[in-house]
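Hello,

Our lab assistant flagged a job as stuck in the queue for most of the afternoon. It eventually completed. Since we weren't sure the result was trustworthy after the delay, we are filing this so someone can double-check. Below is the sequence as submitted and the structure that was eventually returned. Let us know if re-running is recommended.
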Amino acid sequence: WTQWVNSPGEVLGAFGPDGEVYSKKGPMPAILAVPWYWLLHGFARLDFTVGMLQSTLLWNGVITALTAALLWLTAVRLGYRDRTGLVLSLLFGLTTIAWPYANQFFGEPVSALTLLLTFYGIASWLRRRHAGWMAVAGVSAGMAVTTVTAHAPMIGLLGVYALAGWWFTPPSKPEQDGTGRRMGDLVRGLAAFVVPLLIAGGLLMWYNMARFGSPWDTGYHFDSGEGFTTPLWTGLWGLIVSPYRGIFWHTPILIASLVGMVPFARRHHLEALCIAGLTALFVGIYSLWWMWWGGFAWGPRFLVPITPFWVLLLAPLVDPIMIPAEAGEMTVPAASARDRLARALAALRQLSAGSWLLLILTPISLAVQIAAVSVNYVNYEIALRTIFPTAWDNPLEFGPPAQSLADFAVGPVFGQFQMLRDGLTANSDLAWLWPMGNVQWLIVLIGGAVILTLLLALIQWWRAAGSARQQDHGALSQPSRTPSAIAWITLLLLPVILVAVWSGDVSRNQHYGEPSVGYRAVLEEICSTAQAQDVLVTIAPFSYHIPMNWMPVYCRDAMPIYGYATNSFTHPEAQLALDRLTRSYDRIWFVTGGLPVNDPENTVERWLADSAYKADDQWYEDYRLVRYGTPAALDDAAFRGLNLPLRDENGTQVTVLAQRTPTSIVAGSVLPVDIVYQLDTPPPADLRWFVQLIAPGGIPAALLDTAPADGYVPFSTLPTGQELTERAGLQLPDNATPGTYQLIAGLYNPSVEGAPRLLAPDGSGFVELGKVDVVSKSEFSSSQ
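-- returned structure --
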């Protein structure tokens, strides 16, 4: 999509040497989402109404949930209670910027998961000394680097953590001690870690070579200003303190992480140093980055990957909070509710200031995230560009607003609440609340039921965990019940049911078009008659989400799609790609949105007029569908001389000198026709061409009415005495009867009543260009 090569806010892609547009982002997030996409596509093939783009965007929600679960396991691995791990996972998922990014398809959630998994694998290896854990760490490290290449220093630091841990941490089992055994553990562990990392690095270099022609080229335009060019203190202020992107504004609970770092470091020296180093690398590297604010995003996007580590620092503050809850449980069944409450209150009074700070900040941080996921943050980003004037035409000047502390009242955090106040309906980003107050009650009811069921299951698990802990402490209790397999399957199916209901309901959202109207009608038409050698080219830069959402649903077979901006030919690579399309495909479907015919700024359509063969032109509301044939079918065709004049009663003469067309064509294809002609006298008016393919029964099977260069050039402005070429395309019906057809062409004057034709010497109103054999699709297929 070439409009993303020079988009406001951030240049999202780059041209490869072949003229194709490639994303600058790492490939791993897309690779991980492929199974999810295939699953959704399978449902779409079964005629379930599924918006592919809408539903694919749910994938990062799965990634974030996995990260939360992994955070739970990490806390337990470090020796904390199961309940503490659960609370940390909930804090991560509900009170940090991880929640808003679970709704977007940025790569940062994948970075968070892979970096945390690398940390978890190393921590497990240090305690178990099993090389398999280092293999897990190595694979996840490779995934992190292929998500964002800039994560390589973080992986290096995690490797240092592994070496330091091996040196300073004794094995958990005495039989694993001894210099020889420890060295063997180190060699096996390092090999298991490094090998998958090297493989991932090699694959990434191959990918860079394939898309940009160099193993070191990632697509970023360092020579154009993209790079580590921001003064360090500017980026530090922006990421940490500024109202626009300051992490503590967007995730207030992380203020408590600063306090939690001290007790965490007392218990886990190496892990604390590792997290501190990761923090320094993340904040330092992205403070220097030219677009440290992350473009159109919510909060400090680049700090999302470090967020689970900062939440882990809260473990020493969460753990004491579990004591009051357990104090009410650690008693005999006969104890009164008053005794239980007294025990809990006594334990609460013993909480540290840090734990109390966490309790205070949690609801505040939760409220910030609820506002972030309820309101479309893009609306306020655009509003900020009005409050703080922005150079929209220059992405390198598309700078961050609301940088001063004096601007805190207009920062995005407070801006989200202002938009809630001004009108949730107009700014809603909720799946169940659409514009004009249209509430999707099915999503509300099913979603509410799923959340309530999961909440009850969570309470049951919490009680079971408390019962198990009572037994560990020798207190009297009822035996805890382990959930049955049916219960686990039910709990796993509930989110699946919710996703299915959500996907079906949001597919009706008018933002993605209405069925059989506008762009969706265009796509339905294309996919109903698409052939293997078809390609789609679009000039609808503000509607790209519609074909991405519906083409995989409507088209049984994938069709290549190229999205261009109106001014794409300012990039020579765009012409290179289009030129290759005309040589590689037989038919081009061309779609425009919100543009008139022959718009002078539509450089792509102008190029197609000179390079392809227009067959027809249809309007669908504000969208236009044009079919073109390509020169590919003319590779073996030669020009045939004609030298046939056409005259009108006023003496105007045009001589048809030659023509070129294939001698045979398959039904359903576009027949390309070159007409070479010369104006012998200046034309008195803007004449128009008609070209027809006449079936054996004398009825036109395909016809075209056109002006020079598809209407870009008035006939009256053409020079006399020069050879000119008119390109025409004739779209044959799929059921065209096999046989020999007659190809004719002529000129007429639309400005005169009756639109009289220019006449050939034999008095007919056309010239015969030649004969064409039409072959049925089945006959053509059997001959291949």
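-- support follow-up --
The delay was a queue issue, not a problem with the job. The result is valid. Confidence is low (pLDDT under 50) at residues 473-480. The chain has four domains: 34-40+60-365, 434-508, 511-630, 636-783.
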